[in-house]
Structure formats: C-alpha cells, structure tokens
Amino acid sequence: STRRVGGNLIESELRQLDGNIYHATLKLDKSKDQLAALQKTIVDQDNVLKEIDTTSKPLVTDDCPTARKIRLLENRLDKSLIKYNEAVSIRRTYEQIVKRLKEEQVGFDNQLAAIERTLEAKAHDYQELLNMSHQANCAKESAKKELQDFQKAYAAERIAKDEELAKKKLYVQGKADQTFKLERKDKQLKQKEADAARQQLDDENQTHQQLESGPTRTPGESDADAERLAKHEAAFKTIRDAPGVTDVNDLL
Q: What is the distance in angstroms between the CA of the first residue and the CA of the last residue of the chain?
C-alpha cells in the first residue's frame, strides 16, 4: 500500500509537470509564431527599407508612423525573444526535474520494496511475539492454578497430618499413662507378692521347724487338738517325701 501511494504521488507530480511543460510549449509555440510573424514583418520592412534606400529618398523619418511602427515591432520582438528564452529555460528546468524524478523513482521503488520487506518482517516478529505472549500468559495461568492446587493440597495434607499427629500424640500419651499405671500396678503387685511370699516363707519355716521338732502339747491343749496336729504333720511328711515336689509353693 505504501508503494502504491508513493507511485500515485509520483504519477501526480509527473502529470502536473507534463501539464506545465505542455503550457510552456504552447507559450513557446505562440512566441515562435509571433517571432516568425515579427521576423516576416521585419523582412518585409527591410525590403521596404531596401526599396527606400534604392530610391535614395528618405521616405521614413523618425517621427513618421512607419518608424514608430517599426520601433514598436522591434520592442515586441525583444519582448518575444525574452519570453522565448524564459520558456526555453523553464522547459530545460522541467526536463531536468522530470529526469531526476525518473531516476529517483527507481531508487524509490527499491526503497519501497525494502520498507515493505521490513514491514513484513516486523509484522511476522510482532505475530511471533504475540504468540509467545499468549503462550506465556497461558503458562502463567497454568502455573498459578497448579500453585493454588498445590497450596490447597498442601494445606489439606498439613491439616490431616496435624490431626493425625494430634491423634498419635493422644494415643502415645494414653499408652504412656496406661504403661505408667500398669508399671505402678505391677510394681505394687510384685511388692505385695514379695511381702506375701516372705510372710509365707516365714510361716513355712516356722511350720517346718515345728514339724521337725515333733508334736508337743502345750498346757491347755486338748487331746483332739493334739491328734489333729499329729495327722497334719504326718500328711505334710507324706507330701514332702512324694517324688518331684521340691518347691514350698507346690507343697502348699
């Protein structure tokens, strides 16, 4: 489009120059016609003058109408010559302008072609930049959405882990409390068992000593009590002598 506008502008200037040259040519032709007419008139007047000279009679004086007419024609001839020279100069100037414009038109066409190629390259670069910008915006939106999804998932996972950790802490604390209670209870039970075993051992030692020393009757003991004690001692000896029994707890 730029090349077409430049070509139209040059064509308009060329048409204007052609019109100016045409008018100048018309003026020049008119001046030539006037000049030819004046030259013919001068020739005719010269012939007349020659005839007058041949007759040697001064027919024309400075104040006669013919002399005034001759001077007028000479002045018109001088003016026509001046206009003719001006027209020739103008025509040469316009011809040089037309020649220079034609020479510049070639370079102008090359410049327009280079400008059009540059514009096409710029348009292609702009389209690529526009596509890259669109892709970058899409990638940005996608990354933003992925970041938001990741943040939501991370927050949900963090909440779930915090809840799970709290539950595990409660579970561990409950187990620790339960273990502490069981250990304390077990310790108390072992203490009771140890006390009971020690008391039982003392009782067994005392009973064993009594059995080893034989039945004795204390004052105030009845015959029935003495007989019952003798039976218990006999049973204890029988059990003690039984094979495979060595622990006092098993005897009890």
A: 125
Cα–Cα distance measured from residue 161 to residue 157, given in angstroms and rounded to the nearest whole number: 6
Rounded alpha-carbon distances, angstroms, from residue 200 to 78, 140, 240: 171, 85, 17
Tokens 């000049």 identify what position? Answer: 35
pLDDT tens-place string over residues 76-98: 888 888 988 998 899 899 889 88
What is d(CA 72, CA 58) in angstroms, rounded to the nearest whole number?
Answer: 20
- pLDDT tens digits, one per residue of 2-29: 555 556 677 777 778 778 788 888 888 8
List all residues 6 or more positions away from 84 whose beta carbon is below 8 Å from its beta carbon: 28, 31, 32, 35
Q: For residues 76 and 133, give the distance between their C-alpha atoms in angstroms, rounded to a whole number.
A: 79
- pLDDT score recorded for residue 219: 47
Alpha carbon of residue 100 to chain centroid: 51
Q: Please answer whether residues 2 and 93 qualify as being in contact, where contact means their C-beta atoms are separated by less than 8 angstroms.
A: no
pLDDT tens for each residue of 135-152: 988 888 888 888 898 888
Q: Rg of the chain over CA atoms, in angstroms?
A: 74
Alpha carbon separation from 10 to 2, 15, 16, 35, 109 (Å, rounded) = 12, 9, 10, 36, 11
